[in-house]
Amino acid sequence: MTQGPMFTIQVPASTANLGPGFDSIGLALGKYLLVDVYEDTAWRCEAKSPMLAGIPADESNLIFQTALEVAYEYNKALPHCRLEIESDIPLTRGLGSSASAIVAGIELADVLCGLQLTMQEKLEIACSMEGHIDNAGASLFGGLIIGIYNGQTASYVQQPIDELEVVAIIPEYELKTSDARNALPAELSYAEAIQGSGISNLLVAAILKKDWQLAGEAMTRDLFHEPYRARLVPELQALRQLPAHPDLYGYALSGAGPTVLCFVRKGAGKQVEEELQRLFPDCSVEALPIVNEGSKVIFHSPAHLES
């Protein structure tokens, strides 16, 4: 008789940057990576969602790789197990699929090795693997996260967001993060850096004040990455040509792209989704909720409740 999973790991998707908050602002979104964890005699991974077809089925899978690295750092041996993975987070589309897998791997090691990691420790492990705080922080904590990672420690502010919806324009084509990074300049002038940081400060202040019109304006004024990546994402360029919309506050590349996120008035998501689907018929357009709960572990076996 096949036994059920010992526990399930649930990790939300995320978006990063929100325009000028480059590598420092993230937001959790209502798409999920779900990992059912079973006892086994080897490390095995089975993809249950079509979009995950082709991912590694052994310990070279990113979730296992992360868990093995965490276990090693804490001088523990990761027990063999089988993972059944479902996800509706598109891969290489700028919605944090790799960050969600890293967070899932940290949670996996934490439970199976009995590490009892704090949220701060989980965050700093994730940041060390990702290189920055935005996607991983949002997936761990939920809601909006604003922070920095200096290579050793992470500092952050987490804020629930309840008065905003997001509509994602998801192109069919992929955009590798490496290609998007290569489009960036090696340096900015002093004047550009001051202006760019000022716009980022304005974005954060407007969000925390819930001034969505001002936040939307700040999102579209980024100087750090969107001017250089726009040529790679025609959907972003097309949005810039549209007239003002009463329910659409602003838009920004989701992470490195190519997904573009539109930030809309609460309650208007479905209507804006329908309008944008007509304008972008070759893309998947989807209203997504912002979620204020981050990753969690759901236990199914009483024997593992103490872990």
From TrEMBL:
- Recorded family membership: Belongs to the GHMP kinase family. Homoserine kinase subfamily.
What positions does the domain GHMP kinase N-terminal occupy? 61-143
Q: So which domain of life are we looking at? A: Bacteria
Under catalytic activity, the entry for this protein gives: L-homoserine + ATP = O-phospho-L-homoserine + ADP + H(+)
The EC number(s) given in the record are: 2.7.1.39
Q: Return one GO MF term.
A: homoserine kinase activity
Q: Name one GO biological process term.
A: threonine biosynthetic process
Task: Tell me the keywords, alphabetical order.
Answer: Amino-acid biosynthesis, ATP-binding, Cytoplasm, Kinase, Nucleotide-binding, Threonine biosynthesis, Transferase
Main role? Catalyzes the ATP-dependent phosphorylation of L-homoserine to L-homoserine phosphate.
Cross-referenced InterPro entries: GHMP_kinase_C_dom, GHMP_kinase_C_sf, GHMP_kinase_N_dom, GHMP_knse_ATP-bd_CS, Homoserine_kinase, Ribosomal_Su5_D2-typ_SF, Ribsml_uS5_D2-typ_fold_subgr
Secretion signal: which residues? none
Instruction: Report the pathway entry.
Output: Amino-acid biosynthesis; L-threonine biosynthesis; L-threonine from L-aspartate: step 4/5
Family matches, as PROSITE patterns: GHMP_KINASES_ATP (PS00627)
Q: What species is this protein from?
A: Ectobacillus ponti
Q: Where is the GHMP kinase C-terminal domain?
A: 204-281
- Tell me what this protein is called: Homoserine kinase
Which NCBIfam families does UniProt cross-reference here?
thrB
What Pfam families does the record point to? GHMP_kinases_C, GHMP_kinases_N
**Binding sites annotated in the UniProt record for ATP:** 90-100
